[in-house]
Amino acid sequence: MAQLNEESLFLFCGRRTDRIKALYWTGDGYILLYKRPSNGRFQRPRSDAELKLLDSALEQILTRTNDAFENDDIALARQVEPLEEVIDVMVERLRDQHIRRLKDGICSIDTGVVFLDVLNNVERISDHCSNVAVRMIGMEGGEDYDSHTLKSIMHHNPTKDYMLEYEQCRKEYLVPLEQMEA
């Protein structure tokens, strides 16, 4: 929570989203603002639900990568790259949705920048997980490719297991995201 010794603005919006209240601390007292739009309801950002879904995918890729590495489990390492692909799609869609919210004035530029930083960091973390897992797969196969070459081979000539894992991750993460978009 913000320090009350600074200028602070606290916004409150109920489930009905037909009114919004703001409590503004000016340093020497509060100003209470109340707004009810004449054209319907306020549109709430969906970023909370989006963040929970993204957090779940990130936790899963970190767990898979760590477990694969700790247990030298190549089968589990093979499940990382399909999930990383899904996370990349999620990040791109979330970025696009957030930019739309910024343009529509639903989110402020301050929170917008923070959310975009979160998305960039999620993408970076999932890329690192992918690099570790793909390198494990390459080392196990005795191949001396770098991780980018191995990923390219996996993407352009996917195995049946790769496609099944991708589809499972798509259903777990992209389908709910599409439902949030609707």
Describe this structure in words.
With 182 residues, the protein is mainly alpha-helical. Helices cover 64% and strands 10% of the residues. It has helices at residues 47-70, 74-77, 80-103, 109-140, 147-156, 160-181, and strands at 8-13, 20-25, 30-35. Strands 1-2-3 form a three-stranded antiparallel sheet, with no helix packed on it. α1 (47-70) packs antiparallel against α3 (80-103), α3 runs antiparallel to α4 and α4 packs across α5 (147-156). The longest helix is centred in the last third of the chain and has 32 residues, at 109-140. It is elongated, with a radius of gyration of 22 Å.
Keywords:
mainly alpha, 182 residues, single chain
- The helix/strand order is EEEHHHHHH
**How is the largest sheet built, in terms of strand order?**
1-2-3
| Tally of separate helices | 6
> Helix coverage percent of residues?
55-70%
Overall spatial form: elongated
Query: Main sheet?
Result: 3 strands, antiparallel
Quote the average pLDDT: 81
Determine the strand fraction and express it as a percent band.
5-15%
Rg over alpha carbons: 22 Å
What's the total number of strands? 3
In whole angstroms, how far apart are the ends? 32 Å
Q: Structural class, judged by helices and strands? A: mainly alpha
Which segments are poorly predicted (pLDDT under 50) over 5 or more consecutive residues? none
In short:
This protein is mainly alpha-helical. It contains 6 helices and 3 strands; from the N terminus they run E-E-E-H-H-H-H-H-H.
SSE arrangement:
Blueprint: E1 8-13, E2 20-25, E3 30-35, H1 47-70, H2 74-77, H3 80-103, H4 109-140, H5 147-156, H6 160-181
Antiparallel strand pairs: 1-2, 2-3
